[in-house]
Structure formats: structure tokens, C-alpha cells
Amino acid sequence: MNCENNYKKNMFSELDTFISELETKDGELISVLHKAQDMFGYLPVEVQEFIGEKMGIPISEIYGVITFYSFFTTTPKGEHPISVCMGTACYVNGSETILNELTRELGVKVGETTNDGKFSIDVLRCIGACGMAPIIKIGNKTYGRVEAEQVKHILKEYE
């Protein structure tokens, strides 16, 4: 546990340095939140409080920004975050069936992470590649024209 505490302490120190080196803190909240999420993987309350204290911003304002932008998350994501596009083209072409297959295969609901921390599932409104519908993303890799029967095979790539 001591190693974990030192690791967190170093990450907070690195985030403190990042904030301190900003020319101005005005208008930089989103940049700081991106940096923090890149470092911690998500934005837990303790990180939000730290940012608020260092930037002189109420935590309510920080939470408002985090919940407004879908990129930010307050819950840990899996090592391989899965996003299922539920935009019109994807939905019409079966993304709901793919989502159901993913949740069945992994045993988690949307917004949850598997017990082993390997996968998490979220939905997106549109990825912007409608010609490849339906689409899922795992990390930075995009899979197009996915069929429910392919889900098990796609997941095996990440074992």
C-alpha cells in the first residue's frame, strides 16, 4: 500500500507542477482536467478537490464541467474502454444488439467496469463514421460494420 501512496503523491505533485506552470489559470480548467484524467485515468473527488484548491475554483463548478463534457469521467475505466456508437446510422444497423452482446459477454452494464478491470462499456451518440455503421471503439481502435457474432472474437484480441 505504501508504494501506491507514493505513486499517488507523485501524481499529485506532477499535477501541482502542471498547474503552477500555467501562465494564467483563467480559462485553463479544461486543460487541467484533461491532464488530470490522463494521469489518473478518471477524475475522483479527491482530484477535483485538489484542482479546485490549486486553481481557486469551487468544486461545484469543476463537477459541472466534468459532467457537461462526455469525455470526462468520475469513475475508473477499464484497461480497454469500449464505446458503442448509438447514433442514428449505427442504431438502425444494429448497435443495440451489439451493446446487448457486449454486456452479456462481459457481465457488466453500461457505465461499469469488469471485476478484473480489463473492460468498461459506454455509449456514444455519434462517432462520425456513419458509412461504417455499426461501430464500436476499444481504446483507440475502431471496428466498423460489427455484427453481434463478432463480439466474442473481438474481445479475444484483448486477452
From TrEMBL:
Keywords: 2Fe-2S, Iron, Iron-sulfur, Metal-binding. One of its GO terms (molecular function) is metal ion binding. [2Fe-2S] cluster binds at C85, C90, C126, C130. SUPFAM superfamilies: Thioredoxin-like. Gene3D superfamilies: Glutaredoxin, NADH-quinone oxidoreductase subunit E. The keyword Iron-sulfur applies. The keyword Iron-sulfur applies. InterPro entries: NADP_DH_HndA-like, NuoE-like, NuoE_dom, NuoE_N, Thioredoxin-like_sf. Its cofactor is [2Fe-2S] cluster. Binds 1 [2Fe-2S] cluster. CDD domains: TRX_Fd_NuoE. PANTHER family: NADH-QUINONE OXIDOREDUCTASE, E SUBUNIT, POTENTIAL NAD-REDUCING HYDROGENASE SUBUNIT. Belongs to the complex I 24 kDa subunit family. This is NADH dehydrogenase (Ubiquinone) 24 kDa subunit.
